[in-house]
Input
Amino acid sequence: MVLGIVEDMNKTAYGRRGVSADHPLAVLAGIEVLESGGNAFDAAIAISSVLSVVHPFSGGLGGDGFLMAIAGDRIIAYNGSGRSPSGFDPEEYISKKPIRGSLTVTIPGLVEMWGYINDNHGRKDLGDLLRRSIALADNGFHADRMLASAVSRYRGELEAFDGWRRLYGGLRMGDLVRNRELGNILRRISSRGWDEFYYGRLSEEIASELERQGVGVSLDDLLDHEGFEVEPLKLDLGSRVLYELPPNSQGLSTLQMISAIHELGIDKLEFSDPRRIDSWIEPLKAIYSFRDNNLGDPEYMSIDVARYARYSSINPGEAVGHIETRGGDTTFFVVDDGENLVGFIQSLYYPFGSGIVAKGMVLQNRGAGFSQKKSIPNSPSPRKRPLHTLSILMIVEDDWRSIYMIGCAGGDYRPQIHARIYENIFVYNMDLGEAVNAPRFIFTDISRASRVYIEEGLTDYSPSSGAEVVRGPRYGSTGLVNIAKRDMAKSYTVFAPDPRGAAVSIAV
Output
């Protein structure tokens, strides 16, 4: 243990099967599926659908999802992100620089990813898997601290959206929340299949409602949506092999940061050494600059990303000027059935996404992820996938004797959070509970005048580089992590939830 990390917040769970997720009702839904004969893929759909109801600020049917999984000896990765609508106006976007509203809406991909999972890897009927989420939407649930906090924090910028205000504007912690329109969508998907969302009468209703609210969407945009399997990026570190999601995900940045830990000798510094923070300023500028200039929709990219997994493969001189990074809201969970290990991440980008609500579902503002620049892979354009902050880190150690699945909420900060967890486990030899509990630092501004957020208990850091220091509480705004480690020799999996949120782990 490092720096006397508080052990009473260590909520790890051990078992052959289990779930770690950001709401107890979602964990319960997953465990029920596992206990009734479903596999981890089935449980993932149930968990995802419940989170879509009880944490509507962090993900849902109006958003996207990504998957990383182990099924037997096969790695499965899936990109469930959507494109900008056909009526999207890039010139208006560049002029207005919106972060909410109709210009930021992209086609939701989450429900199609449920269909891919159910059709290709599931055992149970989709109707069985959505039963709990439908009941919660129809009959109600009591708002937890995370939902109430999101409403309170963003009410000022979202109350102008009528649908959002009616559903969530007056909400307080403990209030009973019902969303029968969302329940109706889930019920129609349950009875008619996932493709009702994209090809059925429901898709026509969604397109019509979005068009009424100023989104340049057509029915063809929904009809043409399709997610796809991807080949994970790979970083071989000898006894450990790391996998991340390829573009339009920012997963490559995670691998570059972890590579930098070893290439730059950061792994030689003690956990409490202030130089450990200073060491990141220039590498982060180079990594984020590389991301912003080279990554985006893979159909618009010109580089072979597999060649750039190491920090040494990029040019530090590329980093110039101000590099904008933003937080974001996401929910990541992990589920293991003893055979299949699934990491699943879903998001609306900002809390409550675009603010636009259609038929009870909040639409993502993933279009705000487009650059304001022209002539780069992430330039704004119709029918194009924006650069995505969602990613999942998987680590295979000692020739598959141990498998780690790591993910978090964090927006642009996600690669840094993944790097912190990696350091805690593999450099500072923490167990999973200690690794998620340990105080973190995150650079929230990557520019000539950098800003670093440091949680209480980390270090009395005084920057030698002129960086601005923001000090936060012991469990501050540095992401919400869930981790699982499958130990093949001991035939069990360890699950660790982050004490910074409402996450729970249960193993059986």
